[in-house]
Amino acid sequence: MKLREASIIGALATAAAFAAGSVLAQQASVKKDFEAEIQAALQAAKTAAGFEFLGTLVRTCLLPQSGGEDTRDNVPGYVTNPASAPARDTWYADPAKVFDNLYFVGGKVHSSWALTTSEGIILIDTIFPYNSEELVVGGLQKLGLDLKSIKYVLISHAHSDHIGGAEMLQARYGARVVMGEPDWGTVAKYPNRYKTMAPKRDIVATDGMKITLGGTTVTIWLTPGHTPGTLSYTFTVLDRGKPVNVAYSGGTAFNFVNDTPDPGIRNFQTYIDSQKHMAEKAAATGATVLLSNHSEFDNAVNKNRMLAGRGNGPHPYELGAEWVQRYFEVMQGCARAAQLRLEQRLESAARR
Ligand SMILES: [Zn+2]
User: Fold this and answer.
1) What pLDDT, on a 0 to 100 scale, did the predictor assign at position 2?
2) Ligand 1: distance of its center to the CA of 253 in Å?
3) How far apart, in whole angstroms, are the C-alpha atoms of residue 9 and residue 129?
4) Greater model confidence, 69 or 63
5) Residue whose C-alpha is closest to residue 55's, from 100, 108, 103
6) Measured in angstroms, how far is the CA atom of residue 273 from the centroid of ligand 1?
7) Range list of β-strands (E), the chain
8) Which pLDDT band holds residue 22 (cuts at 50, 70, 90)?
9) pTM of this structure
10) 280 C-alpha to ligand 1 centroid (Å)
């Protein structure tokens, strides 16, 4: 090798070593501060929650998560032996007329909603098999609504606390049942788990699908996350004749597999993207009311009690558009914090 070539090679090697060194230095200087980012995401969720969404904050930021789907196909104890169902005083709540055309027929913990139209009822969620008879059927009767006019049953997701009465309502009143494709699949896959709860496969929800009855429309939004087929809705109700827009969030806790970076990081992203999607639809429709299928998240049972003392004051469910947005910020902040923890685990495993 000539001297000149050798010196060029030497210079190139020095340059390469320098470049590699500076890349390492750069990597060190921009190394993600996971703790700071996790704290920022948690703080964003806490700030968004205020005192209005403490239940949602506690559920998604503070309580331990299930870590994944239950893949067993067992008949629930309360189906095998109805006497083992939780005691009535742990779940019973009075039905309530909440808006001119929206009625609460849920319990203390889980909610069911009846949207009434000139051509019948659109029912949203159906609670457990052991209390749908008293709460949903009995509630509608107490409120003077015609059971035979239940035309649609929308199931936010196929968990037994929401799908529990769907089979009965379909069989007894001929209601059309709407559910997300993946959750129809789950019901078919686990015949024991859904015993007495499984409606015959019917309408498959799509993003933006409109369910219209008697001039009232519920628009369905696909919000996978809590389950792969979770649905959320936007619709309009009337408050003493005034139109009020509602955003209905159909799935909240982190029930998907989330105890390992793969697929947890991806699953959290699906959940976060869904909350953004729903927040956009809530903003676009001017939603000022946030509803859920758990009182824990929308304070439905407490608000129902406040209705009686409302007088000429504001409707207790009407929070305003900004608060509706804040609901979805709570869910996003908590999900992002949990996703960051998995990213941190992935990174420290790669460095080892
Ligand atoms: Zn659920």
Assistant:
1) 45
2) 7
3) 78
4) 63
5) 108
6) 18
7) 96-99, 102-104, 113-117, 120-124, 150-154, 176-180, 203-205, 210-213, 216-222, 231-239, 242-249, 289-292
8) low
9) 0.89
10) 23
CA of 176 to the centre of ligand 1 (A): 21
Give the pLDDT confidence of 240-252 residue by residue, as tens digits: 999 999 999 999 9
Instruction: Determine how β-strand 150-154 pairs with β-strand 176-180.
Output: parallel
- State the distance from the centre of ligand 1 to the C-alpha of 186, rounded, in angstroms: 13
Rounded to the nearest angstrom, the distance between the alpha carbon of 256 and the centre of ligand 1 is 10
> Where are the extended beta strands (E) located within 70-171?
96-99, 102-104, 113-117, 120-124, 150-154
- What are the distances in angstroms from CA 27 to CA 20, 23, 62, 267, 351? 11, 6, 32, 27, 12
Instruction: Please tell me whether residue 4 adopts helix, strand or coil conformation.
Output: helix
pLDDT band of 352, cuts 50, 70, 90? confident
Strands 120-124 and 242-249: unpaired
- Tokens encoding 351: 């460095």
Could you give the CA distance from residue 253 to residue 112 in angstroms, rounded to a whole number? Answer: 18
- How much distance in Å is there from the Cα of 163 to the middle of ligand 1? 10
Query: How far, in Å, from the CA of 217 to the mean position of ligand 1?
Result: 24
> Does the pLDDT at position 171 exceed 60?
yes
Q: Average pLDDT, stretch 82-100?
A: 97
Could you tell me the distance, in angstroms and rounded to a whole number, from the CA of residue 195 to the centre of ligand 1? 17
Please tell me the distance from the alpha carbon of residue 231 to that of residue 204, in angstroms, as a whole number: 11
How far is ligand 1, taken at its centre, from the CA of residue 320, in Å?
A: 26
Q: How many whole angstroms from 161 Cα to the centroid of ligand 1?
A: 7
Provide, rounded to the nearest whole percent, the portion of the chain with pLDDT above 70: 91
pLDDT of residue 18: 46
Residue 48 CA to ligand 1 centre (angstroms): 23
Distance from Cα 79 to the centre of ligand 1, integer Å: 18
- Rounded distance from Cα 277 to ligand 1 centre (Å): 19
